[in-house]
Amino acid sequence: MAQKRRRSFITSVLACIAFIAAAIWSWDLPVADVFSYLILMLVFLAVIVAVAFGFGALLNWLRRRNDQRDDRRNDDR
């Protein structure tokens, strides 16, 4: 099963590269524009990952804080 999944991923990546190459060749898209779009996309992706990491850290902090509060309440009883 893993072999098929790996093959489909590689096929998808190759199809994406072929589409970008076709856009460059058939529409005379400048390669500099492609690289600027790539950098812009990577910056947006980094921002999304950073925000997700921040929310994950916030949720982890809140969960630990609530667990400590519950432990203190149970110790008082």
Summarize the structure.
By secondary structure, the protein is an all-alpha fold. The chain has two helices and no strands.
Account of the 3D structure:
- This protein has helices at 2-26, 31-76.
- By secondary structure, the protein is an all-alpha fold.
- The radius of gyration is 23 Å and the shape is elongated.
- The relative contact order is 0.05.
- The model has no long low-confidence stretch (mean pLDDT 88).
Short descriptors:
77 residues, mainly alpha, 0% strand, elongated
Give the topology.
Elements: H1 2-26, H2 31-76
Number of strands: 0
Number of helical stretches of at least 4 residues: 2
- Please compute the radius of gyration using only Cα atoms: 23 Å
What percent of residues are in strands?
under 5%
Task: Measure the end-to-end span.
Answer: 53 Å
Given the helix and strand composition, which structural class is it?
mainly alpha
- Morphology: elongated
Order of helices and strands: HH
Largest sheet: none
Residues in helices, as a percent range: over 70%
Mean pLDDT: 88
Spans where pLDDT lies below 50 across 5 or more residues: none
